[in-house]
Specification:
Structural class: alpha/beta
Strand content: 15-25%
Radius of gyration: 21 Å
Number of strands: 25
Strand order of the largest sheet: 4-3-2-8-19
Helix content: 25-40%
Number of helices: 12
C-alpha cells in the first residue's frame, strides 16, 4: 500500500488534472488563475515530466535541433496550483482516487483527464519492437541519436499524414546523405486543396523524399518493412507515424469509452458515465455537429480552457455551458525554409485559400510558438484564453447542412 495524500473530500474542493500537454496546461493555468484567491479550491497538475513537451516540434527534436527548455512548475508559479511529477498508473472513479507511480494515491473531488495519445505501434506486428516514434521528447531524442550515427542508409517513414510529412521533410533536409522513403495509403496532402497538396509533394520531391502512396505496411522487421502483397523494403531506421492510440487507463477505470478508447463526453466535456470527470484533448471523444473531434493543438487547448470554465461555473453553483469548436487551419512545415498552411472550414474541410513558402513558414512558426505565451497571458488575464472559433452551424449538434 502506498502513502495516501490529503483527501479531496476535506474543506477545500480538490481538482486534479492529469497530463500537462497543450490541453492539460490550458486547463491548469486557466482554472488556477481563476481560483487562486479562493481558499475553498485546490488545483493539482500531474505529469510524468517537469519539462513541457512541444509536440508540434518533435520532428525538429528528432533531427537533433535544440528546443527551449520549458518548465511546467515555472509556468505555474504565482497561480497557486501544485505540480506533482509522476506516472499515472490507475484511476478509480468509485473512490475518486488516482494512483501515481504505483506508490502514491491522490484523492480528488473533480478530475480533469488529459492523458493524450501515443503512436499506435500495436497496430502492426514488429512496430513496437523495431520502429521509432514521436510519442515523447525522449522518443524523438532516441531517433535523433540514431540518425546522427548513420553515415548512409534508408529511413522509412510509415504514415503519410501530417506528422509523417513533417518528419520526412525534416529528416531529408537535415540528413541529405540518407535516403528517406515516405509510405502511406494516401498521397501526402490528400486532404488539402489541389494547390496546397501539389506544393507539399513538390517540396518532398525537392528534398529528395521518395513517396510511395497506396501502400500499407503489414510488418516491421529489424532491418526492413513488409508491405501488403509481400514486398520487402530494406530500412536502416523506421519511424512509425501511422495512427495513434489512447491510454488504456480510462477503459480500465470503467469510464465509458468509444471504440478508440477515448472517454465519451457530454456537451460540457464531462464523462457520460462519471460526470465528476472532465475529459480534454486527445483523450476525449467530443461530438460536434460535424462529427467527433480529432486531436490537434488548435482544438486541444480550447477543450482545456472550457473544462476549467465549466468547473469554475459548477463551483459557483452554475450550470456548465456546451463546448463548441470549429477548425480553422492546417499548418504543415516542410523543413525549415518551406511550409503550407491550408485554411479550413469549421468541419476541417479545406477552403480555397492557402499559404505556401516563406509566408507559410512565418505563420506556422507563430502558431507553433503561441501556446507558451498564451499560458503566460492567462495567468494574468484568464479571460484572454477563452476566445476560439465556435464553428457556427457546423459545430451545433443537430444542425443539418
Amino acid at each position: 500500500m502506498g502513502t495516501r495524500q490529503q483527501s479531496g473530500t476535506g474543506a477545500a474542493h480538490h481538482v486534479v488534472i492529469l497530463g500537462a500537454g497543450y490541453a492539460g496546461m490550458a486547463a491548469a493555468v486557466q482554472l488556477a488563475a481563476r481560483v487562486k484567491r479562493r481558499k475553498d479550491v485546490r488545483v493539482t497538475l500531474v505529469n510524468a515530466q517537469e519539462r513541457f513537451t512541444e509536440r508540434m516540434r518533435l520532428h525538429m527534436t528528432a533531427t537533433g535541433q535544440r528546443l527551449a527548455e520549458l518548465s511546467i512548475p515555472q509556468l505555474l508559479e504565482g497561480t497557486g496550483a501544485r505540480f506533482v511529477r509522476g506516472w499515472v498508473t490507475a484511476v478509480d472513479p468509485d473512490t475518486k482516487t488516482v494512483r501515481i507511480d504505483d506508490d502514491r494515491v491522490l484523492s480528488y473531488d473533480t478530475l480533469v483527464y488529459g492523458l493524450g495519445g501515443v503512436a499506435d505501434t500495436a497496430a502492426v506486428p514488429g512496430a513496437e519492437d523495431h520502429a521509432y516514434t514521436l510519442s515523447s521528447a525522449q522518443d524523438a531524442e532516441l531517433l535523433a541519436d540514431r540518425l546522427a550515427r548513420l553515415t548512409d542508409g534508408t529511413v522509412v517513414v510509415a504514415g503519410s499524414g501530417l506528422t509523417g510529412v513533417e518528419s520526412a521533410a525534416e529528416i531529408a533536409e537535415r540528413h541529405p546523405r540518407l535516403n528517406v522513403v515516405l509510405l502511406g495509403r494516401r498521397e501526402p496532402g490528400a486532404t488539402m486543396t489541389a494547390k496546397a497538396g501539389k506544393h507539399v509533394r513538390a517540396a518532398l520531391d525537392r528534398l529528395g523524399v521518395r513517396v510511395r502512396a497506396g501502400v500499407e505496411v503489414v510488418k516491421v522487421l529489424p532491418d526492413a518493412v513488409e508491405l501488403a502483397g509481400g514486398e520487402i523494403l530494406a530500412a536502416d531506421v523506421v519511424l512509425w507515424t501511422s495512427g495513434t492510440r489512447t491510454s488504456p487507463l480510462a477503459a480500465a477505470a470503467g469510464l465509458a469509452v468509444d471504440g478508440l478508447g477515448r472517454i465519451v463526453t457530454d456537451p460540457a466535456l464531462r464523462s457520460v458515465s462519471h460526470p465528476e470527470v472532465y475529459t480534454i484533448g486527445d483523450a476525449a471523444a467530443i461530438r460536434q455537429g460535424y462529427g467527433v473531434m480529432h486531436g490537434t493543438c488548435q482544438g486541444g487547448m480550447p477543450t482545456g480552457v472550457h473544462a476549467a470554465l465549466s468547473i469554475h461555473r459548477a463551483l459557483d453553483g452554475k450550470q456548465p455551458k456546451p463546448f463548441r469548436f470549429g477548425y480553422y487551419h492546417t499548418p504543415v512545415s516542410l523543413g525549415r525554409g518551406d511550409a503550407v498552411v491550408q485554411f479550413t472550414r469549421p468541419d476541417d474541410s479545406p477552403r480555397r485559400i492557402c499559404l505556401t513558402g516563406r509566408l507559410a513558414v512565418r505563420y506556422k512558426e507563430t502558431v507553433t510558438a503561441s501556446p507558451w505565451p498564451t499560458y503566460g497571458r492567462m495567468k494574468k488575464m484568464p479571460a484572454s484564453g477563452a476566445f476560439w472559433p465556435r464553428g457556427g452551424r457546423f459545430s451545433r449538434v443537430g444542425d443539418v447542412r
